[in-house]
Design a protein that fits this description.
The protein is of the alpha+beta class and about 110 residues long. The protein has helices at about 5-35, 45-50, 100-105, and strands at about 65-70, 75-80, 90-95. Strands 1-2-3 form a three-stranded antiparallel beta sheet. The relative contact order is 0.19.
């Protein structure tokens, strides 16, 4: 069948979540092994440290994933989503649930 715009969007959102999870794992590994003074890594840092495949630093829309290190050691990874802008409703997080994916796909 023909792929609709919504299917493509949903596929991109799912791919962004999976990509964000991979970046999060790399960031956690980095924080446990390489981080100087607990500095929060960027995807470039992770790729340079060989913790992340350099082909996996960008989300499905071509923007680099953002790594956020929260107090208490939690790491969040966020894709800027379809609009490529930070902090907008279409951002995709590593901890998205299926309902979140649907919500963003329906925007």
């Amino acid at each position: 069948g023909r792929i609709t715009g919504l299917d493509t969007t949903r596929g991109h959102i799912k791919a962004a979540k999976v990509g964000a999870e991979a970046v999060k794992q790399a960031a956690e590994l980095y924080m446990n092994t390489d981080a100087e003074g607990g500095e929060c890594p960027t995807v470039k840092t992770l790729a340079d440290a060989k913790k992340l495949d350099a082909k996996k630093t960008d989300d499905p829309w071509g923007s680099p994933y953002r790594v956020l290190c929260e107090e208490g050691g939690d790491i969040r990874v966020i894709s800027n989503g379809r609009d490529g802008k930070e902090g907008t409703p279409d951002d995709v997080r590593d901890d998205f649930k299926p309902s979140d994916i649907k919500k963003v796909a329906d925007l």
